Fold this protein.
Amino acid sequence: MPPRRSKRAESAADQLQEAIDALGAIRRGRFTDDDDLDAIYRHALGVVRKLGGRVQRLERDLRNERANAVGEPPDNKPVLESTTLWDYPVQSYGENKKGDSRYQGVTPAFIIYNMVQRYTEPGDLVLDPMCGSGTTIDVCHEEKREVIGYDINPIRDDIQRNDARVIPLQDDSVDMVFIDSPYGDNVDYSEHPENIGNLSAEQDDFYDALAEVAEELYRVLKPGKTLGWLIGDQWVKRRFTPVGFNIYTMLTEQIGFIPVDAICVTRRNQSSNTGLWHYRALKHNFYLRGYKHLFIVRKPERRETIDQQPRTIKVGIDRHTRNPESRSWRKYK
Ligand SMILES: C[S@@+](CC[C@H](N)C(=O)[O-])C[C@H]1O[C@@H](n2cnc3c(N)ncnc32)[C@H](O)[C@@H]1O
């Protein structure tokens, strides 16, 4: 039997062997009941995931040591992504911390690095209206971009308290926006009454609030400049809510952003990424959320003609002519 509840295997080789033994045990039916199978599976999965992290760090150290040996600067920058599938086993990179990996809902710094490299130049102004633990601020400082970070519940001195629905910046003043908003009420960010993370993604209020945020982002962005919006879908109590598709529709068809692309970012560190939840997902025939959407959109150029604008659809009304009283998301459903 695999040593699933024994003391932890010390070396990477022992851990690998432990996982292989567990695989063999499951394959040969060497478990007593469902609970026993679950225990073997969960333990082995935990071991394999930790090993993955060690391998990733080993790869980085190897690159850096080689660079050191030949007198090159350390290779501590992320790769620039060339496809629409991004996958990061760790939250941060380099010698300086970016954000706080213990902050619930922290953004992988690699995503912000890629956005900053693709859509800004040194000296440009980047805005993060829901800055959380400050990952965007840290990435921007290292990449020599100007940055403003707000949050309704700031946890650092360089983050200003502000509700993202009213941004104290001038029209057409920002070169890029990155936002990783709440995806619903799945994470307990704070008890602040204006915390959008206390609204359910199954309710209109949530989409109304984020549409107000999006309007402000549209207003402060310079024409032609880019917004990256990270968002996840929801599956709660046997109900799927396509939060990402709702936000994408709101951005492009309600607010007037032009689609640039949609990236799939692997989810790795959410609380349901445990052996037990994987087992439940199979046993009860549902799926765990495996990815988040990163929607990349841009504000139209001033001279951009109607032909270059995204297609319009019959539902909803034009953002410039509609009555502010009738903004409700439910009109667009
Ligand atoms: C997913 S977290 C952002 C994580 C952040 N990018 C990081 O790397 O740490 C979402 C953030 O939105 C903030 N938030 C919720 N409602 C807000 C509002 N009305 N205005 C500004 N920030 C808000 C929460 O306090 C939380 O920090």
Residues 99, 103, 105-107, 129-133, 135, 150-153, 163-164, 180-182, 189-190, 194-197 surround S-adenosylmethionine (CB under 6 Å). The radius of gyration is 23 Å. The longest strand covers residues 221-231.
